[in-house]
Amino acid sequence: MYGKSININKSLGLKESLAFQYGNIGIVYAEIGDTKKAMEAFNKSVEINTELGHQVGLASNYSNIAIVFETMGDFDKSLSVHRDSVYINQSLDNKIGLADNYQQIGSVYLSIKNYNEALVMCRKSLTINEKLGRKMAMANNYGLIGDVYQAYGDIDKAIKNWEKSKLLLERSGNLSMAGEIELLIRDIISE
Fold it and tell me: Quick one: which of 53, 71, 122, 125 could link to 102 by a disulfide (CB 3.0–4.6 Å)?
């Protein structure tokens, strides 16, 4: 499906659409675990966005590349590329991009067991999301904060944050995810 669309956009010279499509292709490959093809697609998108001077696209590309590095277990590269995305989003005053960056960096810090930095990043993200009224993003923030506290061994604080996440999910109509958090809390309490 993307192949035909890419060929059409190439023939029409629609570079911004090409950059967007390559980014989407990278996400699909990342989701199915094909990190090599994901990186190839993201790098094509980076190349086009760089040529066009499309900073928002570049920040998004870098964020996606950083996530792939995290899934590959290359946490140093992940943090480095996330910082590139943060720099761009700061220069653009892109609050949504920054909130997402900080949440993702928090996830990396959780993966490397740097719980203090994970909490700092998650809270920075939460503060921005609260100001912007991004309820689903806030639910994700509270969920990850709960995960950090669980890893840290503070189950009471973990449950408190998961409950906040669950409530936001319920209010947003995402009952499936709210149910998953409820099951998680029940499992933890029963241990």
Answer: 125
